[in-house]
Amino acid sequence: HGKITLDEFCKNVWFQLKVSALGKSTQDSYKAQYELHIKPVAGHKKLSDICPSDGDQLMRRLRDQGKNAK
Questions:
Q1: What residues form DSSP beta bridges with 46?
Q2: I need a surface site. Which of 11, 36, 42, 61 has the fewest CB within 10 A?
Q3: Residue 69 contacts residue 62 (beta carbons within 8 Å)
Q4: Sign of CA pseudo-dihedral 32, 35, 37, 43
Q5: Cβ–Cβ < 8 Å for 3, 50
Q6: Residue 58 has what pLDDT?
Q7: How far apart are CA 33 and CA 48, in angstroms?
């Protein structure tokens, strides 16, 4: 999976295999949260290139938006 982007992985693997088993409202929520918060930070990155600083950037972004990032 290291050659695909996080966005490709989420849409073609995670959403299809894992999220699709959840209820419709949960699926919609997960997809919306991914599009809003995760995709802008790391969606374009190859899985093999994602590092802890990407998580730090996501947490800063959530804090700056007033979200409780734990």
A1: 5
A2: 36
A3: yes
A4: positive
A5: no
A6: 87
A7: 22
Q: What is the pLDDT along the chain (70 residues), one digit of tens a residue?
A: 569 999 999 999 999 999 999 999 999 999 999 999 899 989 999 999 999 998 898 888 888 888 665 5
Kindly tell me the burial class for residue 10, based on how many C-beta atoms sit within 10 Å of its own C-beta (0-12, 13-18, 19 or more).
buried
45 in Cβ contact with 6 (< 8 Å): yes
pTM reported for the whole predicted model: 0.76
CA 13 to chain CA mean position, Å: 12
Q: Locate 68 and state its tokens.
A: 């409780």
pLDDT of residue 41: 87
> How many Cα atoms are found within 13 Å in the side-chain-facing hemisphere of 60?
8
